[in-house]
Amino acid sequence: MNRFSVCFVCTGNICRSPMAETVLRSIAGAAGHGDDLVISSAGTGDWHVGEGADPRTEAALSARGYDGSRHRAKQFGADDFARHDLVVAFDRGHERVLRSWATNDSDRSKVRLLLTFDPAAAPRAGVPGTDVPDPYYSDAAMFDTVLDLVEQSCAALFRQIEPALRKGPS
Predict the structure, then answer these.
(1) Nearest in space to 89 (alpha carbons), one of 44, 127, 45
(2) Quick one: which H or E segment has residue 63?
(3) Residues facing 103 on adjacent strands
(4) Measured at the alpha carbon of residue 53, what is the angle toward residues 21 and 25, in degrees to the nearest 5?
(5) In the structure, what pLDDT confidence band is assigned to residue 40 with cuts at 50, 70 and 90?
(6) pLDDT tens digits for 83-107?
(7) Which positions are catalytic?
């Protein structure tokens, strides 16, 4: 059986993308689809390769009952498109970089912004626009705001994927 594969991509793979990987994995598992999805994350840059998630990311996740402690950062590369059905970016900068790395229209079409799955998530969290803010240079409160966006958008993403998972392979 081919499993649907999602990769979340942010800048350094220590804040936003590990949050989304952890949240979507939890949502899928709770719905009985933990084995039907391949969920990963990566960064556009290589600054943090091999490191764990930012401690503030882990703290925000832990406070809501998630475990992101096993995360190790990696970098996304053009060859990763072949392994993923969906590549989720957190801001328009990531989206541009990823689309520029894609070698064909099929791979470019895999790139989506996280907030496009739940366009109402940003206004509910008090964040303008379509970009999930980078909390790295901010405080713990921003990590919580980002986690709000991630939870809402990942729930919406899962609602879109889940009917196909129920059907199984075609």
Answers:
(1) 44
(2) helix 55-63
(3) none
(4) 20
(5) very high
(6) 999 999 999 999 999 999 999 999 9
(7) 10, 16, 134
